[in-house]
Design a protein that fits this description.
This protein has 190 residues and is of the alpha/beta class. The chain has helices at 30-41, 61-77, 97-104, 119-125, 135-148, 166-174; strands spanning 2-8, 13-15, 47-54, 83-90, 109-114, 126-128, 151-158, 181-185. Helices cover 35% and strands 25% of the residues.
Amino acid sequence: MDITLFVDHQCNLRCSYCYTGDKFSRPMSMATAERAIDLGFSDGSHCVEVGFFGGEPLLHKQLVFELVRYTEQRAREMPHAPSVRFTMNTNGTLIDQNVIDVFKSVRDVEFFVSLDGARQRHDAQRRQVSGAGSFDLVMAGLQRLRDAGIRFHIAAVFGAGSAAGLGAVVSTAAETGAKSVTLEPNLRDD
């Protein structure tokens, strides 16, 4: 069974093409998340996948870490010993050593990281709340994932202004060592 936990609507970036509107913080409670995870184990599945999504789920690292531990504990308690898989959808800016340590300890995890191409293209579209670009933070997070041997994929958003440069977008993403690169059109663009 697949469970996606929408950790919070809040995000530390203000991407030019964001479709979710004004950001607000309403983090998922531990109790709600535990109920969702329990539901995932209730049907006797041989594999339970827990995905973290948001806004930016790593704004609530401690909650995410507790949920990873809770999921692993529940799997150990099950008589049929299901496998557990984690996925993290993130903008990549908050991947620090604590994130690496927690996810390196689980058997099956993949990160899906947003990177819209080389520095100029990425920073034009994916700015921090302060207005600064986020390219260097994302690249540092990807380096940590690479160094830890954690699998990751790149998702790159493109629109009318960047479609002509898709080759460069794919090249930049491929150079990160990602397992795959997905091009996602900005559906709100002309």
